[in-house]
Input
Amino acid sequence: MAHSYVLWALIGMTGYSFTTLFVKLVERAGIPSFVVLAVATAIVAIFVLAIVVARDKLKVLIAQFSQPGMLWALAAGISLTIAVSSLFHALALGPATVVVPLYGMFIIGGAVLGVLVLHEPVTWQKMVGLVAAVAGVFLIAS
Output
């Protein structure tokens, strides 16, 4: 692949795909969504802590908390908590074939915010792609 970020994005997409599958299977087993959220979040926290310790970066991590940009990291944590807990709850209530495409609209939201807030370039090709993505989600979820 030409860019490593594409590989990482594909890995993330694959992980989220399996996450929604596993959450739906847990829901079918009768386990409440908040329990799944607690277990999944604990696993992420343990994994991240293990990486920090393995790379001997604990001092670097602690030092970052005094940086002004950390407010954005806290905001990201809050919005991610809302996003994931809402996804898990929605999967507990409805079919994955509707919930996952609707949740996936965050891609469109993120792209639009990138243009509006981060002033990233927009082309007609990107605009057509966003419209097609919205149409695709509508067709899948209906």
